[in-house]
């Protein structure tokens, strides 16, 4: 978000509250500790209203002052923003596939869903210049007050929302825009490859059936598809590595400064270092948000309290390295069993918490619990040893089994210990 000192307060355009809120929340979701603390606040922004375009410029200035000037942070924020725009903004009615997203700005429609009025040089634009689906390339021109890496992240985020692309990579140029020094002109180039429908299904089925020690026969098109998936995964791994490398550099610098800053890092840390999952603090925040939302919308959600069976025996027999491996495996398997809107957290030790959003009732939550039991029952390989893993699960549903976070956690815990007493490796729904 460069060169935004140009006076934009006379611009006649408007910006959607959903855009402002998404910008702020996209940075709040990052694991960063900017100098001076996070100053961005979203509580006064109504996502249903439109605001003067000057508020966008003021918000970007606030971000520029608050967030470390690190490209990969802005890229990750752009990915976060697109997810928020799709889940809570106009994107939820505009985009239902990667193809929808690639064409969203054919006539600047995506950008104009969050900015309107005024002349283009005052509010900016995003236009699809060309697209060749067969060659897998799309080119966009963007003139906006947003950082190029943020824009790059937005386009990448839109392409990974759906599981219909097997390869995606995004590049963005950056140059001044002379008619308005507050803006940057970016040419965004997206290279992509759709999953061939029939081949993708067959390949997914073969990969799902593949077990350790077995083999699989692939056709030439399936091998080609697998190679492109691997290349796409390499892009993601490189992006993640660059992001976390930058985060580590920022944290290392902060740690070197003072012990007080080290204490602040520990206080503000929201994720478990071993598994990468949200920790108890963040899980409780999300549980409170789920309660508030369910009360407001008269909805339901479920809390699953999980405890690993026999974990102490694994630690005592094979050591903490094996125990850590088991915890990471459980975390990955839990995450694979739920939706992106759900939360999987590590409570501490060998305890985990799952928050399922918008469930129909106890039976639906039980279905997810069964899925988790099946996923976690697979052994974990530790060298040449097979470590047996299972979990005991207690289920509590709002409002059936509690109308507060404390009551839901207590009742899920009671249900989980009823399984511990009667054989483990199962689940129970709380019985009032």
UniProtKB/TrEMBL annotation:
<dbReference type="InterPro" id="IPR052163">
    <property type="entry name" value="DGC-Regulatory_Protein"/>
</dbReference>
<dbReference type="GO" id="GO:0003824">
    <property type="term" value="F:catalytic activity"/>
</dbReference>
<dbReference type="InterPro" id="IPR029787">
    <property type="entry name" value="Nucleotide_cyclase"/>
</dbReference>
<feature type="domain" description="GGDEF">
    <location>
        <begin position="299"/>
        <end position="432"/>
    </location>
</feature>
<dbReference type="Pfam" id="PF00990">
    <property type="entry name" value="GGDEF"/>
</dbReference>
<dbReference type="InterPro" id="IPR000160">
    <property type="entry name" value="GGDEF_dom"/>
</dbReference>
<protein>
    <submittedName>
        <fullName>Diguanylate cyclase (GGDEF) domain-containing protein</fullName>
    </submittedName>
</protein>
<dbReference type="InterPro" id="IPR043128">
    <property type="entry name" value="Rev_trsase/Diguanyl_cyclase"/>
</dbReference>
């Amino acid at each position: 978000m460069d060169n935004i000192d140009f006076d934009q307060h006379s611009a006649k355009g408007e910006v959607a509250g959903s855009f402002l809120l998404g910008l702020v929340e996209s940075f709040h979701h990052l694991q960063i500790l900017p100098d001076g603390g996070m100053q961005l606040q979203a509580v006064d922004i109504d996502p249903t209203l439109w605001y003067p375009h000057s508020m966008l410029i003021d918000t970007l200035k606030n971000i520029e002052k608050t967030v470390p000037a690190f490209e990969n942070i802005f890229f990750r924020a752009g990915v976060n923003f697109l997810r928020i725009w799709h889940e809570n903004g106009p994107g939820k009615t505009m985009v239902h596939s990667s193809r929808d997203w690639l064409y969203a700005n054919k006539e600047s429609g995506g950008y104009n869903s969050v900015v309107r009025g005024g002349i283009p040089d005052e509010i900016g634009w995003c236009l699809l210049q060309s697209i060749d689906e067969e060659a897998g390339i799309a080119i966009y021109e963007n003139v906006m007050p947003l950082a190029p890496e943020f824009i790059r992240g937005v386009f990448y985020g839109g392409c990974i929302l759906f599981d219909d692309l097997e390869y995606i990579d995004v590049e963005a140029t950056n140059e001044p825009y002379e008619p308005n020094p507050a803006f940057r002109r970016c040419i965004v180039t997206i290279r992509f490859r759709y999953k061939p429908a029939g081949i993708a299904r067959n390949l997914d089925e073969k990969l799902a059936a593949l077990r350790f020690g077995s083999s699989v026969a692939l056709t030439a098109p399936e091998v080609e598809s697998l190679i492109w998936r691997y290349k796409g995964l390499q892009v993601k791994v490189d992006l993640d590595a660059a992001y976390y490398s930058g985060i580590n550099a920022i944290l290392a610098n902060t740690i070197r400064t003072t012990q007080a800053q080290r204490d602040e890092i520990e206080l503000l840390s929201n994720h478990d270092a071993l598994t990468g999952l949200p920790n108890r603090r963040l899980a409780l925040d999300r549980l409170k948000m789920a309660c508030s939302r369910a009360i407001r919308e008269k909805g339901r959600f479920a809390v699953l309290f999980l405890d690993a069976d026999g974990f102490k025996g694994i630690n005592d027999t094979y050591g903490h390295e094996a125990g850590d491996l088991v915890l990471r495996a459980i975390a990955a398997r839990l995450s694979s069993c739920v939706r992106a809107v759900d939360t999987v957290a590590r409570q501490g030790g060998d305890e985990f918490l799952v928050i399922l959003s918008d469930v129909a009732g106890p039976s639906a939550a039980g279905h997810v619990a069964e899925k988790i039991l099946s996923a976690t029952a697979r052994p974990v390989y530790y060298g040449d040893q097979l470590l047996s893993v299972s979990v005991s699960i207690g289920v509590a549903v709002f409002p059936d089994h509690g109308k507060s976070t404390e009551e839901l956690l207590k009742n899920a815990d009671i249900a989980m210990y009823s399984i511990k007493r009667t054989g483990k490796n199962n689940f129970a729904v709380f019985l009032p």
